[in-house]
Every structure is written in C-alpha cells, then in structure tokens.
C-alpha cells in the first residue's frame, strides 16, 4: 500500500498546499547526506555560509536565528522573549493565524487588544492608528503578513512606519509571506520577522527563522524570557552555532535552498510567485469559483482561497482530487470548512503544475456533474501566463 493507503494504482503524490510545499529533489537529496557532528568544523563552515545568505532574504543587516521548530514555535518565541506577563499588546488580525497570535499572547499572560477585520480582507491601518491612540501603553503590535487561512495580505510596511519612532515592537509573522512577497525588514522598520522552512524556502518543515532588530534587542535584553529552549539571549550567546543540537539534515537542505534562491534572485522569486498566483486566480474564476479576497491588490502570492460555485461540494471535490488523483489541495479553516478550497502556490510550483492541477479539476468537476466548458481554465491560465491563445480562422 502506498502512503494514501487507498489508491490502487501508482500515483505521484502532489501537493498544492501553502505549507508544507513541494520540495525539489536537489533539496531533498542535500538533506539526505551523511550525518555530521554539530560542533564540527564542517558544520561551522556550513552554518557560516547559511548565516551569510539568510539576512539577504529579509533585507536586513541583522543576524537571523534558526530554531528547530515549525512556524508556530517562532511565533511563541517572539512572544515569550519580548514581553513580561501583564504587558499590553495589540494583535492585528484578519484570520486564523492572527487569532493564533492572540492565543499565544494569552497563554503568556499578556493583555491583548485586537484590531481585526473580516476574513478575506486586510486590516485597515487607520484602525490600527486609532487603537494605538486609545492604548498608547502597548508594548508590541503583532500581525501576519500573508494570512494563509484566507489569502489576504496585510500592509506591514504601513504598520512598520506607524511604530518606527515609538517604543512599540512590530512583530511580523512572515512565515508564508517571506520570499513570496516583497519584504524589507530594515527599511520598513520591522522589529521581529518570522519565517519557516516549509514555505517559500521549498523545504521540509522543521526550521523556523527569526530576525531581530536592534530596537527589539534592547527590550529582549531587559526581559527574563518565559522560555528556555527558545531564549533569544541564549541563541545570541551561542551564535553562529545553535545553543542546542541543530537540525543538521535540515541545515544541509537549507544550504541548498539558499543556493537555489540566490541563483534565482530574491526579486525574481517574488515575481515568480506573483505570476503563478495571478494565473491561479484567473483559472479559478474561469471555473466559476468565487475568489475569497475581493480586493485584487491585497491578494496573497502564497495561497488563493475560493468558494465553490453553487451546487459543488468543495469537500467532496478535494476528497476526490486526493483519493483518485493523489493531489492534495487544502480546504477552508474555521467557519469555511467544507465551503472553500485553498490552492497553495508557494515554493516550487510552476506553470506545468498549474496546468495539471486545473486540468484535473475540470475532469473531476465534470464527473461531479458540474457543467464545465472543456479547457476553459487552460485558456485562462495561458492568458494569465502571457502566452495568449491563437485563434485560427
Ligand atoms: C504555516 C504558517 C504558520 C505556522 O504553521 P506551522 O504549522 O507551525 O509551521 C504560521 N503563520 C502562517 C501565516 C503560516 O502560513
């Protein structure tokens, strides 16, 4: 039996999900090398190379700390290192991961003020400004850049400039937004920026990345962190090496990921994501899906959420794609479970993948009794990707 346990034929397993993502073979193989000791000269060389490359992806001059955890670990680390119990913080939330920040802050005994906007929209900056006027004693603002539950992007640049000349720390979950979107940590005045390996880095899950501004360090240095494993002070003390055993295999894979991204160039990688995202949006519209994020300029390059056309059971569609064709696309979270599909297009997804995904969606939709004009999403993809369609007389 293969991994799915249900397929009777050999199928390639494919994912169009916003983390984990597909992992290019070169990266998988880099992680499959023989183990090396984490306090060896060899490891030190690799870490040094990684540390040289990583800040360029955040457009920062600061060091990046690598945690052996999923993205949520980095969110928790940012909270447990930056605030004291009882501190007041502002969470700017427009979806599931914004709500996660609130949950984490609550666990650490912080007083949470929220500015939120409905799922599928991004938060209005004037409301953030108003909340700050009402609560000038906040110690931090926490927000998500690209909200993976809905595919809406928040204006973290504007949030950064709002708090730049204040004592308030701006903490950004750029876990899915880094690489796929423009992000300039130093220029935008962001204080703590979080990322993770299984998103734009095209890697397996397991590493999280934290960039910390000098302004944030001033606060962190004064605070008794409510964590030992994730203590940033401890990370700094051991830098460039890790304070505890690092994920050696994942670091080997990371080195390859950084090589690939460097060869491509950060702005090219961002443009690639934008292009694939636009094509996905056009393809879904052609099939009669309703894009969940209505305002085109805040649509994520990471994931596209869409509501199924009436009469189509989104959960059944996803189930059939998965069971019959080995393709994993995710559904909605929270109240949108069963009504929504979310196509992840972060990382190594390319044009050929897209044609395959949409081709098979047409097939399954037709099987489900939905009237689809054959090839309609292919045409939409071709148009969006710039090829256009030649019409013969
Ligand atoms: C993936 C993701 C996370 C973290 O999820 P983990 O499963 O802990 O890696 C957090 N925020 C956003 C926006 C994400 O896309």
TrEMBL record:
Report the sequence similarity comment from the record. Answer: Belongs to the class-V pyridoxal-phosphate-dependent aminotransferase family.
* Domain Aminotransferase class V as annotated: residue spans: 21-333
Q: Where are the N6-(pyridoxal phosphate)lysine residues found in this chain? A: 199
InterPro entries (UniProt xref): Aminotrans_V_dom (IPR000192), Aminotrans_V_PyrdxlP_BS (IPR020578), PyrdxlP-dep_Trfase (IPR015424), PyrdxlP-dep_Trfase_major (IPR015421), PyrdxlP-dep_Trfase_small (IPR015422), SP_NH2Trfase/AEP_transaminase (IPR024169)
Q: What is the lineage of its organism?
A: Bacteria, Bacillati, Bacillota, Bacilli, Bacillales
- Name the cofactor(s) required for activity, per the record: pyridoxal 5'-phosphate
Q: Which UniProt keywords apply?
A: Aminotransferase, Pyridoxal phosphate, Transferase
The record's annotation in Pfam families points to: Aminotran_5
Its BP terms in the Gene Ontology are: glycine biosynthetic process, by transamination of glyoxylate
Q: Where does substrate bind?
A: 342
Q: Which organism is it from?
A: Bacillus spizizenii ATCC 6633 = JCM 2499
Output this protein's name: Hypothetical aminotransferase
* An example Gene Ontology molecular-function term: L-serine-pyruvate transaminase activity
